Amino acid sequence: MIKVIGIKVIDRIKEAGLTQGILSKYAAHIISRLGFHEVTDSVCSREACIVLHLDGENDETVNMISELKSLGGIDIRQITFSPEELGSGNIVSSKGAEILGVLVEREPELAGKVQKILTSFGCNIRTRLGVNESFFGEPAGLIILELIGDEEQRLFLEKELKKLGKVHVRTMAF
Fold first, then answer.
1. What is the mean pLDDT of residues 45-58?
2. Strand order through the sheet with 74-81
3. Each residue of 79-115: pLDDT tens digit?
4. CB 4 within 8 A of CB 101
């Protein structure tokens, strides 16, 4: 199983230290971490998002998620890719932050097709993280996207990716 969780920190100044303490405690079970918040010359947002790519479902990741949920001031969403859920992955509509997880099985020419679709929707992708993964014991690529912009375009991106065989899409939204 491949597990990705999204954490929305509602008040970064108050909650970041507590959240960081828990993440540090379970660092051995975090494969990748991506954090972001809005920053300009005049504004530094108190709200932040953290995306974690975890080493699957085990007691330690379950404990970490439980500890995070016990904190006030954060919201948690999860997406998983498992053999039992290959046909699922409903498209989710949201006005807030939207994270798209894309699992690409290794197949000749498939990566190029995925890249072409992502490039054509580049104006809707604020952040992109790609990591190597294993799925059903075979090499795969996991792409984590933070989407922005027009909701209709974001939904169209998801539909286009889902048309490709052996590309699995999951959404989490805040």
1. 85
2. 30-36, 48-54, 2-9, 74-81
3. 888 876 655 555 455 556 689 999 999 888 899 999 9
4. yes
> Which parts of the chain are beta strand (E)?
2-9, 30-36, 48-54, 74-81, 98-105, 125-135, 138-147, 167-173
SS3 65: helix
Bridge partners, 108 (sequence order): none
The number of distinct structural domains making up the chain is 1
Mean pLDDT of 50-62: 88
The domain that holds 164 is classified in CATH as 3.30.70.1150
Q: H helices within the chain, ranges in order?
A: 12-25, 59-70, 110-120, 151-163
Rounded to 10 degrees, the C-alpha dihedral 147/39/142/155 comes to: 0
What tens digit of pLDDT does each residue of 3-46 get? Answer: 899 999 888 778 888 898 999 999 999 999 988 877 778 877 78
- Partner residues linked to 128 by β-bridges: 145
Quote the CA–CA distance of 170 and 90 in Å, as a whole number.
Answer: 7
Q: Which of 59, 75, 53 is nearest to 7 (CA)?
A: 75
| Domain, as residue range, for 52 | 2-173
The pLDDT of residue 12 is 77
